[in-house]
């Protein structure tokens, strides 16, 4: 049956499009409703439908894969009724994924179907280059467009130096210097964000304050930071999606302490694009950029064109990403082996039963 979704003040406000509507045809025919997940709790999620939010249950398999579980930002098919149930997730066009905080081989989805990743870093503390590189790798790997926002400019002593450092670490990325207290460049940020925007960054970076400014109301909880190190407590305890007054939606996230990569090879290439470019000029295609003759990367370091720290960081993140990938591959092999063992056991039982009936 043709789609009946025409209300521009309904799901279109949350990012619903004609393309999504067309892919939903079979779900319409099954009596399901389109919805966007705004929040996920244990076994429950808040799903925004064209007629308003509902609390929907969803099935959790005995051995759940976090990558396949509902996440804030997901589009879903909901079975309506007195006990709404999430029947299916629509394919994601982008997702921010990090290694699971439990140190398992699974990935953890932080936000789905996002268009803009705002990486918030406080100017009240020294710039952590390694942390910025990790956050950028997550953002680029997601398929969304990163934007770096240096917050709390009113508390900074040397804004230009930090701005220049961030520019070196993030070529091709828009960087804004903001202050919620003074209103500096807040309008410029509002003009840059589009579609679904997610706020990423450590606790105390001012993400929730920035979000409240974009929302035009004090909707997100904020808290103080410690004066000695600029670190804050987790005032945001869960990811939540809310509509922006000028269009689009915003996802606020808890502060990230652990930023472990998960299958982020493409993101790393984008973050360290200058090293990737130099490596093409190395004499050997498998150059490790160490002691090999004709290494363009080492030549750039010797000439002062590339900091040694940058290469060290690149190698560290590559090793971490490769290790995470190897653990994932090992888990998949184990899962395939267990499935095959179960199939074999079932077949043996079946054949034994047949033999007994003869």
Automatic annotation (TrEMBL):
Domain of life of the native organism: Bacteria
Enzyme class: hydrolase
Pfam families: RsgA_GTPase (PF03193)
Binding residues annotated for GTP, in chain numbering: 151-154, 201-209
Cofactor dependence: Zn(2+)
Gene3D superfamilies referenced in this protein's UniProt entry, alphabetically: P-loop containing nucleotide triphosphate hydrolases, Probable gtpase engc, domain 3
GO terms, biological process: ribosomal small subunit biogenesis
Main location: cytoplasm
Keywords: Cytoplasm, GTP-binding, Hydrolase, Metal-binding, Nucleotide-binding, Ribosome biogenesis, RNA-binding, rRNA-binding, Zinc
The keyword Cytoplasm is assigned to this record: yes
All residue ranges annotated as the CP-type G domain in the record: 106-259
Record-linked PROSITE patterns: ENGC_GTPASE, G_CP
Domain EngC GTPase: 112-257
InterPro entries named among the record's database cross-references: G_CP_dom (IPR030378), P-loop_NTPase (IPR027417), Ribosome_biogen_GTPase_RsgA (IPR004881), RsgA_GTPase_dom (IPR010914)
GO molecular function: GTP binding; GTPase activity; metal ion binding; rRNA binding
EC number: 3.6.1.-
Co-factor remark: Binds 1 zinc ion per subunit.
The keyword Aminoacyl-tRNA synthetase appears for this protein: no
Residues that, per the record, bind Zn(2+): 282, 287, 289, 295
Compartment annotation: Cytoplasm
NCBIfam families registered for this protein in UniProt: ribosome small subunit-dependent GTPase A
The family this protein is said to belong to: Belongs to the TRAFAC class YlqF/YawG GTPase family. RsgA subfamily.
HAMAP family assigned to the protein according to its UniProt record, in alphabetical order: GTPase_RsgA (MF_01820)
Quaternary structure and interacting proteins, as annotated: Monomer. Associates with 30S ribosomal subunit, binds 16S rRNA.
Known function: One of several proteins that assist in the late maturation steps of the functional core of the 30S ribosomal subunit. Helps release RbfA from mature subunits. May play a role in the assembly of ribosomal proteins into the subunit. Circularly permuted GTPase that catalyzes slow GTP hydrolysis, GTPase activity is stimulated by the 30S ribosomal subunit.
Protein name per the record: Small ribosomal subunit biogenesis GTPase RsgA
Gene expressing this chain: rsgA
């Amino acid at each position: 049956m043709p789609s009946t979704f025409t209300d521009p003040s309904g799901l279109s406000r949350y990012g619903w499009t004609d393309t999504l509507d067309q892919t939903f045809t079979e779900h319409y025919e099954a009596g399901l409703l389109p919805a966007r997940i705004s929040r996920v709790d244990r076994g429950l999620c808040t799903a925004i439908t064209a007629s308003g939010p509902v609390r929907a249950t969803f099935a959790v398999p005995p051995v759940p894969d976090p990558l396949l579980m509902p996440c804030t930002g997901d589009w879903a098919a909901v079975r309506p009724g007195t006990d709404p149930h999430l029947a299916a997730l629509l394919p994601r066009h982008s997702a921010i994924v990090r290694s699971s905080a439990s140190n398992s081989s699974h990935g953890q989805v932080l936000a789905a179907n996002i268009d803009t990743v705002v990486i918030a870093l406080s100017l009240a503390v020294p710039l952590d280059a390694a942390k910025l590189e990790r956050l950028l790798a997550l953002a680029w790997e997601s398929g969304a467009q990163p934007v770096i926002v240096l917050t709390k400019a009113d508390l900074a002593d040397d804004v230009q130096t930090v701005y220049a450092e961030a520019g070196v670490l993030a070529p091709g990325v828009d960087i804004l210097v903001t202050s919620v207290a003074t209103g500096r460049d807040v309008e410029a940020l509002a003009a840059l964000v589009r579609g679904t925007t997610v706020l990423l960054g450590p606790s105390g970076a001012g993400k929730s304050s920035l979000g409240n400014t974009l929302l035009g109301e004090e909707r997100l909880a904020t808290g103080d930071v410690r004066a000695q190190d600029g670190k804050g407590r987790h005032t945001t305890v869960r990811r939540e999606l809310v509509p922006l007054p000028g269009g689009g939606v915003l996802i606020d996230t808890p502060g990230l302490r652990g930023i472990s990569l998960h299958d982020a090879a493409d993101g790393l290439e984008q973050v360290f694009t200058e090293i990737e470019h130099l490596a093409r000029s190395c004499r050997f295609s498998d150059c490790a950029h160490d002691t090999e003759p004709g290494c363009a990367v080492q030549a750039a370091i010797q000439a002062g064109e590339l900091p040694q720290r940058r290469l060290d960081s690149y190698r560290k993140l590559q090793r971490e990403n490769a290790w995470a990938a190897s653990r994932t591959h090992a888990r998949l092999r184990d899962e395939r082996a267990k499935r095959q063992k179960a199939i074999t056991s079932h077949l043996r039982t079946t054949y034994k039963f047949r033999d007994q009936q003869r």
